[in-house]
Amino acid sequence: MALKSVFDSSVIRGEFDKAGINNRFIPLIWKYVIQNPDCNWEDIPSLPSSAYRLLRAKFKASTSVVHSVFESNDGVTTKLLIKLQNGAFVESVIMRYDSSLGKLNGKPRPGGPRSTLCVSSQVGCKMGCTFCATGTMGFKNNLSSGEIVEQLVHASRLSTIRNIVFMGMGEPLNNYSSLVDAIRVMTASPFQISPRKITVSTVGIIHAINKLHNDVPNLNLAVSLHAPVQDIRCQIMPAARAFPLEKLMNALREYQTKSQQKIFIEYIMLDGVNDEEQHAHQLGKLLEAFQVVVNLIPFNPIGSLSQFITSTNQKVTRFQKILRDIYDIRTTVRKEMGQDISGACGQLVVNLPDKRSISNAAPLTDIEDIRRQ
Fold first, then answer.
1. Contact 274, 228 (CB under 8 A)
2. Dihedrals φ, ψ of 3, to 5°?
3. In tens digits, what is the pLDDT along the chain, a chain of 373 residues?
4. Which residues on adjacent β-strands are paired with residue 221?
5. CA 327 to CA 342: how far, in whole Å?
6. Do 295 and 336 touch, CB atoms closer than 8 A?
7. Distance between CA 234 and CA 287 in Å, rounded?
8. Quick check: is 118 catalytic?
9. How far apart are CA 311 and CA 271, in angstroms?
10. Would you say 129 and 349 are in contact if contact means Cβ atoms under 8 Å apart?
11. Which string of DSSP letters, residue by residue, matches 211-280?
């Protein structure tokens, strides 16, 4: 039987409980492993003898390894190709930002450089979004909570991670139990990442949205809406047929009532498909009763798989202006990072791009730090 990841919280807590070992030792084990990636279990000081036996018998310090690291020419993006214990691969992306570049109430924000980690939750994806490279892989398998957390462990050795976005490979809410378990680990000792610095993105899995706030409160929820009407959503996102727009908006309304937090709306700009002025007005009317931030995302080409064209800057600007000026909806345009290493939004698919070297490029501001003046 394959050994489990020591970061698989529910498994290690269950095993410790069965063996009568106090769970307070678990964060100490995690901290030691993070700081000493090549350690043996016996190297960890001050554990009960039964804990050493249990760790040797059932757990590995890491069930995954970093196969390759790709540095983008933008100087602020690093993609990790991670090999799992079953031989499959997933990708994670480190994005470096500068918080001070944003605005707060029209004034410069406090803060400085930091890193956001884009995490994968599945190998492949079953949603089949026609603009996303990951969807071309089909669905392979869910990641365990330990495999999700290990992405953070690997990335933390390259950069100090302050924010986490579940926007990598897979639909996070289709791997719900592992997602919740992983987030609970990330927000606890020794990681202690604030829930408000974690964003979960979904195409709109209604039954899971209805549970999310109760299970892991204070997260940021991002919804991949991508169209203001159901017909267009179904055209570009086949899975949307199972999640009618009216029912999705009702679920989001209930989520916002419970959480009292803004919801991020992700909207990929596809030329001639969803980027016309009429679409902006439809989107504005759909969202005007919500507290949202709309993030307009330029379409990233996915090679010969592409059936779409990126919207022009003029169209994006006009779309943004309509949402802002007519509907008073906070709207940002995502600055794409890592296109040259296929690390930008919608480009994550297991392949081996040519390794790139870092060049000196200015850091960017993250969506969470952008404020409309």
1. yes
2. -70, 150
3. 789 999 999 999 999 999 999 999 999 999 999 999 999 999 999 999 999 999 999 999 999 999 999 998 878 899 999 999 999 999 999 999 876 666 666 666 666 678 999 999 999 998 988 888 777 778 899 999 999 999 999 999 999 999 999 999 999 999 999 999 999 999 999 999 999 999 999 999 999 999 999 999 999 999 999 999 999 999 999 999 999 999 999 999 999 999 999 999 999 999 999 999 999 999 999 999 999 999 999 888 765 556 889 999 999 999 999 999 999 999 999 876 545 545 444 444 555 444 333 333 334 434 344 333 2
4. 200, 263
5. 34
6. no
7. 19
8. no
9. 4
10. no
11. HHHHHSTT-EEEEE---SSHHHHHHH-GGGGGS-HHHHHHHHHHHHHHH---EEEEEEEBTTTT-SHHHH
CA distance 358 to 170: 28
Cβ 142 vs Cβ 178: under 8 Å: yes
Bridge partners of residue 269, in order along the sequence: 298
d(CA 260, CA 156): 31
As a three-state string, the secondary structure of 57-115 is HHEECCCCEEEEEEECCCCCEEEEEEECCCCCEEEEEEEEEEHHHCEECCEECCCCEEE
Is 29 strand, coil or helix? helix
How many residues appear in the chain?
373
Ramachandran region of residue 106, left (φ > 0), alpha (ψ -120 to 50) or beta?
left
The H or E element containing residue 297 is strand 292-298
Rg of the chain over all Cα atoms, to the nearest angstrom: 21
DSSP of 123-180: EE-SS--TT-SGGGG-EEEEPPHHHHHHHHHHHHTTS-EEEEEE-SSS-GGGGHHHHH
The closest of 309, 312, 297, 290 to 267, measured between CA atoms, is 297
Q: Are 271 and 316 in contact (CB under 8 A)?
A: no
Q: Which of 71, 91, 171, 336 is catalytic?
A: 91
Whether 345 is catalytic is: yes
Active-site residue identified among 118, 125, 132, 345? 345
210 burial (CB, 10 Å; 0-12 / 13-18 / 19+) is: middle
